[in-house]
Structures are given as C-alpha cells and as structure tokens.
Amino acid sequence: MSKNKNNKAIWSTRIKKNTTSTFKKVGSSISIDKRLFKEDIQGSIVHVEMLFKQKIISFKIKNKIIWGLNKIQNEILKGKFDFKVELEDIHMNIENRLHEIIGEDAGFVHTGRSRNDQVVTDLKIWMKTSTLDLIKLLESLNKIFLKVAEKNIETVMPGFTHLKNAQPISFAHYLLAYFEMFKRDKVRFANNLKSLNENPLGAAAFAGTNFNIDRFFTTKKLKFNYPTNNSIDTISDRDFVLDFLYTVSTCSVHISRIAEEFIIWNSDAFKLIKLNDKIVTGSSIMPQKKNPDPLEFLRGNSGSSFGNLFSMLTILKGLPLSYFKDMQDDKKLVFNSYDLLKNSIQVLIDILNNFSPNKKRMLELANEGFILSTDLADYLVQKHNLPFRKAYMVTAKIVNLAETKNLKLYELPMKELKKIEPNLDDNVFKVLNLRNSIKSKKSYGGTSFENIKKMLKKYKRESK
Ligand code: ARG
Fold it and tell me: Which among 31, 58, 140, 283 is annotated as catalytic?
C-alpha cells in the first residue's frame, strides 16, 4: 500500500483498515517495475516543468521537486534506494521518497496526472529505447549472416523439402534466407515505433484533467511525436504491448527455426555442420557427448515468448475500458520477452561465429536421393520440347531405373536411357551435375552463384 511521510497509506483517510498482508505482498509490482525508475523520474521532471510553465506550480516548488527527483535517481543508481514492497510500485516508491526528502511540497508532483497515465508513459518510453536496442542487435546479427554467406557462396549442399533431398543449393543462399527474415523483423520493430511515439501523459485517470496542462509541451520534451487523442483509449490501450510481444514472437520463430535446423544438421545422422567447443556442453554421465544446448535454449525461448503474447491477449480479452489491476502484468510480459529475445539474438550471434559447415559431407549428401531429377525434367522440356508433365513422367522412369540398378542418374548407361527417351544424347550429362544445377537457377531470387553475389552486393549497399 502507498504511504506518505507519516507511514500512512495515501488513501488512509478514506480506507480505514490496512490492506491484508497477503494482498500487499502479492499485489505489489515493485520487483518488476523498478526497472522503470529512470523513465518515471524523467516523466515526473517533464511533468513539473510543464506545470510550472502553465503557472500551475511555482518556480520554487518545481526546482525543489526536480532536485529531489535527481537525488532519488542517484540513490537508485548507487544501489542506496530502499524499494519497499508495501509501497506497491515504482511510482509510489519514488513519490514517497520525495516526501521524505523535500516534505509536503512533494505532493504537487501528482497535480493533473494519475498513475494510470504515468505507468503507460513510463512503459512507452522504456519500450521505445528497447525497441531501438533490438533493431541494433538485429543489424549486428544480419552482418554476421552476410559474413558467413560471403564465405560460402560456392558451398554446395542439398536443399530439402519435407527434410528429404530436393534440389541442390548454395549454403549462402540458405543463410541469406534468414537474413531476409531478420530484415523483416527489423521493419516490424521499426513500425511499432509509430504508436510508441504517441504520448499518454495528461490523460490522467482516464477523463483528462481540469488543470490547464500543455500536452504538446510534454510530448516534445519526452521526445514523443504527438499526444494521444482520446484519454479513455490512452489508459485502456495496450495494443503497443501486443505489437511488441507479437514482433518478439515472430522474431523468435525465426530464431527457433534456424536453431532446430542446426540441431538436425549437427546430429550424428546428418553431420552437415560442426559446432565448436564454445557452443556445446557436455553430459554428466556420457563422456563422449558434445550437446548443442545453446541451440536448444534458443528453440525453448520461443515457447516462452509465445506464452507472453497469449497472456497479454487473454488479459485484455473482454476487459472493460480504462484501468484495471489486470493490466499490471503487462510490464512483466514485456520485460521478459525483451530479455528472452536479447539473450537469444546474442546466443545466435555466438553460434554463427563458432560453427563451420562440413563441406565434404554437404556435397556427399547432395549426391544422394536423385537430387537432380528436376533439372533432368527441365532439360527435356528445354532441349527436347517435351511438355513439362511428359518430361516429369520420363524422368520418373529414369529415376526408377537408377534406383533399381543402384546407380546415380549420371552413372546410367546411354543405351538404357535411350530405351526410355530415344532422343537423349550425351549432352544430358551436363545437367546431371550439382554445380551446373545451381548455376542454372538464375531466376530473380534463385540460388545461382551469380545471383547470390549480386544479392550480397545489394544487401551490403543497403546496410551502409
Ligand atoms: N502498478 C500499477 C500498474 O502497473 C500502476 C497503475 C496503478 N493504477 C491504479 N489505479 N491502481 O498497473
């Protein structure tokens, strides 16, 4: 419960009994929202500057409050601030301490505002900075994707559909697929800034205020773009929280997909990549083990992020307008998703810096599973004028033959091939080649080495 200097709850004149000790403890959010102390102090300083400019409080009181707030900030930064659970949240903790430091004049700080607009203001300021942090981190991540891709333009590997060999690709092309995903995540985070740039301060409890406040002044000083338009919506709105949690979730989907793929590729069955000792852990009983724990950590984190998104959606579903205690959990969810994603991106960066493709094995596996069948069908269309469906059927027969004889497509004798398609000649062997297959995928966005080189140039230009 919130208390003033005399250690009484702010509402004790009205509410005669102390809140039960159970609820005081469990209903308190200070352990979570103390993370907003800087934003809360910044918001309060700008608020009192505005109150002074509007002649609502005196110059002396404004300065006294700002002095007190700066002192509190220092105490918190130096670890000398005593956060009190019974004072419920960061707003009450700071206001109470202000009372202790400057006395009754501290009471002017809450003129024309409510904790309801205060908490949304603090959270939006915090989320703006954190969103920009995540955008920067994603940029660093994508630089590494470019670096690894550049080294692997000519690295041939099997591309999979249904986890079965499908068509050969360049490993760089695969890595750049993730580059695109994280580029989209960056755009999504940047789009979120639009609503984060609307200033809630001044909506007060939910109806606005009868003081002649200047919301455009606080908007400018707090580096928002506009004041919000409707005070009821301002207090009720947590769409910006949903946007953030969704964006984090989508980004963590991408992270968990590469994590899962790398786990599979690192397995003893696939052996397509090797993780160096910095990104594996051992077993407590099996001495030989090198386990991909960091990758599994990434895959797991995504589950917790989705949980946070679903918690917030469920909290808001059917909630009548303006403020309810239900909303207090928004911060826990946002902070947790932020921490999860930040850790995940950093771990993914470590992984990308500490793995290597097993090029020999990639090539070996690419030679399995008649991976050039589509190239053969395309060749029959292009060189022998067959309709694609006919070419597909002829190729399927050739694959059946190769399978029965336990040969690769390029090992089949011409005599046998001619029995299936009489027009075939030795030229066909040119398409039955992994590198030629990749080279031929020249359509825009395809895996040809030339395309990848051009794409890399474009990405580098864009990221300057
Ligand atoms: N600790 C509260 C929260 O985070 C602050 C807003 C409280 N407002 C109220 N009317 N109880 O949601």
Answer: 283
